[in-house]
Amino acid sequence: MRARLPLLAIVMLGILAVASCGGHKTKDDGPPGSTRIPDLPDDAVPRPEARSKYGNGPVYEVFGKRYTVMPSGSGYQERGVASWYGKKFHGNLTSNREVYDMYAMTAAHKTLPLPTYVRVRNLSNNKSIVVRVNDRGPFVHNRIIDLSYAAAIKLDMITDGTSLVEVTAISFDPPQGDRPVRVSSPASASNGSTQPVDTSNQIYVQVGAFGDRSNAERRLGELSLAGIDDAFIHEDPSSDRVLYRVRIGPVADVMQYDVIVDDLAAMGITDPYLISE
Q: If exposure means fewest CB atoms within 10 Å of the residue's CB, which of 67, 211, 222, 246 is most exposed?
């Protein structure tokens, strides 16, 4: 039997989905007359917190799609597109029934437990922040996290509205089981400063790593037939044996990344990985 949420819960989640959908941003979504605020807040300081009674599923449905909330954030890391939301929803309730403050270091995520602390790194400039996830969203294709206005400022992504990022959960729990993720960050306080900026970063989409070069060349040929011409083989001798990594790029912006992801999905490739070098 298909589990269903109570009607009120579905309605509430639908409202919250709109509130943190990560959709098209308007130029006046921040404070009037400025893209800066007088005093940027310090990063969120990770601390153990009880799981919220609200917004934690375990299963919920928004816009016809079902989401399962993770039992823990331990071990979670993902790379993809971050968006942000601002004054249009300032003062509204978040999914765990706190008041959304666009000047606080918070974020929305579809499946991490509420609350969870995460480190978000902008792959294009290496700026890094810590935020507290207390909301659900963004319910928009190919978006993994929706940041508060203040958090977006600190990552230098206000003007573009979106950015390619790495999101890593800061966990107080030991890893549980085998998850399709790579690493979790140890719980530690933050002094509120971002990491040094490195503007030389180039970003690529990786679509396979092979021990046999012929397999990498076969993947390269598939990409070429699909009209993806900026793919190449990166030879990586750093492991015990040489790996041939098939990459696309460099990727200039989120718009180009969205196109690449859609093209790959049409080929049946649904697990591309962002590389920042």
A: 211
Torsion over CA: 160, 83, 152, 121 (sign): negative
Residue 68 domain boundaries: 7-186
Number of structural domains the chain divides into: 2
Q: Which of 75, 48, 66 is nearest to 111 (CA)?
A: 66
Domain final residue pick, 123, 156, 186:
186
Which whole-number Å values give the CA distances from 249 to 53, 135, 205, 274, in the listed order? 43, 33, 7, 10
**Does residue 28 sit in the same domain as residue 124?**
yes
CATH number at residue 245: 3.30.70.1070
| pTM exceeding 0.90 | no
